[in-house]
Amino acid sequence: MQKRTVFETALVRRIPKKSDFLRYAAYEMSLEALRRKRVERLEMAKAPPSISDYALVRRQFQIFERALKKFKGDVGLWLQYIQVAKKEGARALVGRITARALQLHPNVPALYVLAASHELEHLSPSAARALLQRGLRLNADNVEMWREYVRMELGFVESLRRRWNVLGIEVKGKGKHKGASKGKGKEKEKEGDAEDPYLGLGEVNLEEEADRMEVDGEDVDEDEAARKEVMAGAIVKSVISSAAKAIPKIELFTSLHELISAYPSPPSLRESLLDHLHALLHKTLPSHPAAIKLSATRHLKADLVGEPLVDALKDANEQLLAYIRSTGGPVSPAVAAVYAEFVEEWCGKDVDDTLKAYLITSLHILIRQLPAPVPPGLLAAHIRLLASHHASLGSGLLPGKADSPEKILRTARKHTTKAPTSAAVWLARLGAERQFATQNEINAAWEEARKHVTGDRIQDVWLWGLEPANRRPPSPDCAPGTASEREHADIEAEVEVLEQLLHESSLIREPAATGALHEALLIRYAAASHRALRSRFRITSPPATIAQPPPRQRHIAKGRTNLSASAEARLARVRKIGSAYAPSARVWAEVFRQEAGGDSDVASTPAGGADAANDAYFGDADGDERVLRAVYEFWRQTDGVEATVAWATWLLRSGRSKDAVGVVARARSVLGEAAGETVERRWKSVLDGPEDAGVNSEEVPSAVWFDDAAAEETFAL
Fold it and tell me: Can you give the pLDDT at residue 696?
């Protein structure tokens, strides 16, 4: 009772929280799980149902009903209620809940699918079909709805086939009952079973069904032609045609192709449906790159091995090559990217090396035969494949002009002359240079790439040489000093490289590319210079000329000397970023986060967290304030709202609540009415703290279904 009193008290607050309802329901569910476990453990004799058998379950339903009165628009809450009702076997209640949910949310496809699945589980295919058709009228552009509708019709055809097989009804003859074929039919029915919610729908009491059909067969002559059409998939084909007309998109065809290919239907029916689907695909999207690949690779399946795999892979490769060569003019970059993706995908699989060599050679020949300009996607894929498979394939399987590291580098450098502005080709060449060339050649290639590359992925090229994986660290024998000194030298070298890159990026004449690139470089520069300061003041030792005090006083004196110098260095870093470069609001947010001493957002730092981090970093409270105030003044010029909230939050976490309130109070006069109102609203959320997220609506199904051990532990007496 005490527990329930606490939960009930939380539910009557002025502004209810959904998490309170969900936590209450989870408590009742675990309590019911405990009751059932104890009944099972005590081995009590079966008795007529009593109020204890359904009281806790009914309370769960009542809690959800109360929650839905407050949160009618929460679809996740409706879905959880349906799941709980299905778990408890409340069939009629599930139907009523889904009906109410669909009235309030007619544009949510998941509700229609869930309702149709419920109807099929209780052998009502006509109701399920009506629900899905109603959903499609309101959500005709939803791929998942059409997929589920096709799945249901596939299940309907499969159930008819199995039922007629059990009853001994042959499609070529008139329907008649053959008792001798029952056993054989049932054995066939068991073969090829798969877990599917629509599979075998309507299979109920086959003996009675056979007797009924036997009697009806005396008076009714079934239409053999119609029956053959149904078994040949006419209904499914009609649904597929309607879906293609409603959503002429590649996502629909891909989804239906995966569904039909994996569905446990007879091979003849599956091929007939796939033929119909791909005919519609060719008619609807004749030149779409993904559609071309889907049609070419339709016979490539994951379970193919041996000769069938070789034939299917060769057929798909030849179809794609034929389409590329048939264009006559310049090849579409999208189509070329599809072929490059196809080759790289299959070269990355566990197939025979000769097949990989066949695909790489096909790409090599295609590049030589295509007229200029060759699509950059093909060139980049060619370089990557040669570099990655050189060791495994060797010179015996690779093309003759690219069967050694020297020839691969020559090919990569030649490709960058064919597409000098393509970032993808340059990145592929840089990967080959890193694998086969010397460090000086790598640096020269990276510098050349920065001069020529334009367009998309320019940031990837400029930042390539800064990644640790793309740098060859010097040998410890060649680098003098201790490990800390070598680490500090590496960081200082990175800072120098970033300063050079920032200078080079300011010379680019493309404003769109310059802004994003400059911001990315500045963020890296801020992080590197931050690490450099930490490293510098961590390894600094007291001057040898100063008289050494006792150990305890020596530590304090050392700290004071370094703290003053560190604050000045930090302030100089902030001023240099603000004056020498053009930092954006994102850059200043990162600098503020670094100087606040935390790796996460300042507003989410718990009380004392930022201070503790600062103590571990520099330990100078006055210096922290000076540096962060300077960052705030710079940041406020680009984003006043975020800067004000972050600065006030840091003041609050530092125990200076009056100063924080003053900063927020001046926001309207400094930033304007609209921005000041936003600051006040954000500040209120900071003061209130994050909403209690103990129970997330999306995570409740996994958090609610306690097992018996968890229930026993929670409610142990």
Answer: 41
How many separate domains does the chain show?
Answer: 4
Q: How far apart are CA 178 and CA 167, in angstroms?
A: 6
Nearest to 492 by CA among 466, 537, 524, 531: 531
Q: What is the pLDDT of residue 314?
A: 92
CB distance 192 to 264 below 8 Å: yes
Global pTM? 0.72
- State yes or no: cis peptide before 542, omega within 30 of 0: no
Co-location of 575 and 625 in the same domain:
yes
pLDDT at position 472: 64
466 and 318 in one domain?
yes
Q: Which residue, among 303, 307, 301, 285, has the nearest Cα to 352 in the 3D structure? A: 307
Q: Identify whether the C-beta of residue 683 lies closer than 8 Å to the C-beta of residue 645.
A: yes
Q: Report which of 67, 70, 73, 55 is spatially closest to residue 23, judged by C-alpha positions.
A: 67
Q: In whole angstroms, what is the distance from residue 201 CA to residue 269 CA?
A: 18
Q: Which helix (H) or strand (E) holds 384?
A: helix 376-388
Based on the fold, state whether residues 455 and 492 are members of the same structural domain.
no
Q: Would you list the DSSP string of 647-695?
A: HHHHHHHTT-HHHHHHHHHTHHHHH-HHHHHHHHHHHHHHHH-S---SS
CB 515 within 8 A of CB 458: no
- If we measure between CA atoms, which residue out of 639, 614, 638, 609 comes closest to residue 626? 614
CB 449 within 8 A of CB 430: yes
State how far Cα 418 lies from the chain centre. Answer: 35
Q: Is residue 360 part of a domain?
A: yes
562 contacts 542 by C-beta, under 8 angstroms: no
Check: CB of residue 538 under 8 Å from CB of residue 559.
Answer: no
Residue 411 in any domain: the answer is yes
- Residue 342 covered by a domain: yes
608, two tokens: 């004392």
Domain span including residue 419: 302-470
Contacts 24+ apart (CB under 8 A), 511-518: 513/454, 513/455, 513/458, 515/584, 516/459, 517/458, 517/459, 517/462, 518/581, 518/582
Cα distance from N-terminal residue to C-terminal residue, the chain: 14
Neighbouring residues of 99: CB distance < 8 A, sequence distance ≥ 6: 115
Answer yes or no: do 530 and 633 share one domain: yes
The series of mean pLDDT values per 10 residues for the chain, 717 residues long, is 74 80 82 81 74 77 85 87 85 87 88 86 83 88 90 87 79 44 43 47 47 48 71 88 92 92 88 92 90 90 85 91 82 89 90 90 90 90 91 82 88 92 92 90 91 87 86 58 75 88 82 80 91 74 38 40 71 90 91 75 37 44 85 91 92 89 90 89 82 40 35 35
The DSSP 8-state label assigned to residue 374 in this structure reads: P
Closest C-alpha among 636, 645, 643 to residue 681: 645
Unique residue bearing structure tokens 């229609």: 112
The single-letter DSSP state of residue 465 is T
Q: Is 11 helix (H, G, I), strand (E, B) or coil?
A: helix
Q: Do residues 454 and 504 both lie within one domain?
A: no
Alpha carbon of residue 94 to chain centroid: 31
Q: How many helices (H) and strands (E) does the chain have?
A: 36, 0
d(CA 4, CA 10): 10
- Helix, strand or coil, per DSSP, at residue 625: helix
